[in-house]
Amino acid sequence: MDLNGLALNYNNFTIDGIFDSKTSNATKNFQDRFEIKSDGIVRSLTWKLLIENVKAVQKLLNSYGYHTGYPDGWFGSHTTDAVRKFQNHNGLSLSGIVDPRTRRKLFNPHPHPV
């Protein structure tokens, strides 16, 4: 869910709960992006980077009034809902995913708060 929610699902596949070759390839792409060992295995460093990225999104959303709950690093339903509300208030597609347009608006110093 974290790769998808952060719009890092490079292969654009549906989340089905199965860690198959598509998931492994998306993980490798994420690892390449952060210049860590690209083996498609989610080890501690990969988890840490995913969690840190999700926490950064959650903290920003919370600071703008889009409540995700405690920033726990998990891109769950509360974070997805907060992203959709943020997207709605900023004229973006309501995907609940932090795609490149959402990321630019979110990390812009003057986004539209609630």
TrEMBL record:
Domain Peptidoglycan binding-like: 8-50, 52-106
Stored InterPro entries: Peptidoglycan-bd-like, PGBD-like_sf, PGBDSf
Stored SUPFAM superfamilies: PGBD-like
Transmembrane segments: none
Pfam families assigned to the protein according to its UniProt record, in alphabetical order: PG_binding_1
Protein name (record): Peptidoglycan hydrolase-like protein with peptidoglycan-binding domain
